[in-house]
Amino acid sequence: MTIHAILTIATMHGWSLRQLDVNNAFLHGHLTEKVYMQQPPGFKSLEHPHHVCCLTKAIYGLKQAPRAWYSALKMALSEFGFINAKSDSSLFVFSDGSILAYCLIYVDDLILT
Known about the structure:
Layout: H1 3-13, E1 18-21, E2 30-38, E3 52-57, H2 65-79, E4 83-84, E5 91-96, E6 99-106, E7 109-112
Antiparallel strand pairs: 1-7, 2-3, 4-5, 5-6, 6-7
């Protein structure tokens, strides 16, 4: 199901749409592999200027940041009962009796109906 299909269904049924933008989205992901970086300027240790930092959370510009963010969001949505659609990895569906909700993700933007 595409974003166009979701918007068409929502419009046909008179469902309200909510658009959300997650601030600093890529900073919310946890890394699953070891990533090291040089000490950033202004934060260098005077005692150990050649030591490196081991990252546990993603930062902007890191190749792994988008995947870490998506994994964190997917886990949070699944804890609320959303199920990842088989047709599109960016679509999550919640269904409980007569309650039906769709959440569509594009990077750090979400559309909920």
